[in-house]
Recover the amino acids of this structure.
């Protein structure tokens, strides 16, 4: 009998604007963080704590990629989001201390199988397969915090083949970036290389084969993806 060596895929890396790379540990996501998007999804804005879910790091797609239309869905949606890159980990981080834990920011697209999400919501089941599928986290190159002072208040846009679908303002988030870090680090210990997708404004909608979807945030590199 011969030894069997199992070799997992290489660690996932995110490009930086200076030509470097960040080793990606985990991808956390915030749900329902813009009031206008909560309303368009048929929900009501509440004072409950933020909702978190996850995508595997292996779901990361670098901007400019062409990906196959995902399986098991007839309703693939774009969600334009500010992504926070954690540089220094920690647990129980106070919101006031949160900026010191941020390495930088990226533009991201939280691709969503909306039909699977709706079915899961209807039965009170987890969202994992609606959110954490292959190629579901499209990310632009990450910009250091010092080079993106306006990232947490910037305009955020999503276009599909040049037509504007989402046009929001990040300062309209219900939970600010420091509040998100405080809540999340009260649930899990954050680590270097964790990413947080911070939620999407109104205007989410379907993508079709052949279309190119671009998320743009003022001051950051765009996150572009084309579907085949
Ligand atoms: Mn989202």
């Amino acid at each position: 009998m011969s030894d069997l060596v199992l070799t997992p895929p290489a660690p996932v890396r995110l490009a930086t604007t200076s030509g470097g790379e960040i080793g990606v540990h985990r991808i956390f996501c915030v749900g329902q963080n813009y009031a206008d998007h909560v309303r368009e999804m048929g929900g009501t804005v509440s004072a409950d704590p933020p909702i978190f879910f996850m995508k595997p790091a292996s779901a990361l797609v670098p901007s400019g990629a062409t990906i196959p239309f995902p399986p098991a869905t007839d309703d693939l949606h774009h969600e334009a989001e500010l992504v926070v890159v954690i540089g220094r980990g920690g647990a129980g981080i106070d919101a006031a201390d949160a900026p010191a834990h941020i390495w930088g920011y990226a533009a991201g697209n939280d691709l969503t199988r909306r039909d699977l999400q709706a079915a899961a919501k209807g039965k009170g089941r987890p969202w994992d397969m609606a959110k954490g599928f292959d190629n579901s986290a499209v990310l632009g190159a990450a910009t250091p915090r010092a080079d993106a002072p306006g990232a947490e208040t910037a305009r955020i846009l999503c276009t599909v083949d040049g037509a504007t679908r989402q046009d929001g303002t990040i300062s309209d988030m219900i939970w600010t970036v420091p509040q998100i870090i405080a809540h999340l680090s009260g649930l899990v210990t954050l680590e270097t290389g964790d990413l947080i997708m911070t939620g999407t404004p109104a205007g989410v909608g379907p993508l079709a084969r052949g279309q190119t979807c671009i998320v743009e945030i003022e001051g950051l590199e765009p996150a572009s993806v084309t579907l085949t």
About this structure: DSSP finds four helices and 18 strands in the chain. The helical segments are 35-40, 114-122, 128-131, 177-185. Residues 29, 79, 81, 110, 197, 199-200 surround manganese (II) ion (CB under 6 Å). The chain has one domain: 13-44+54-221.
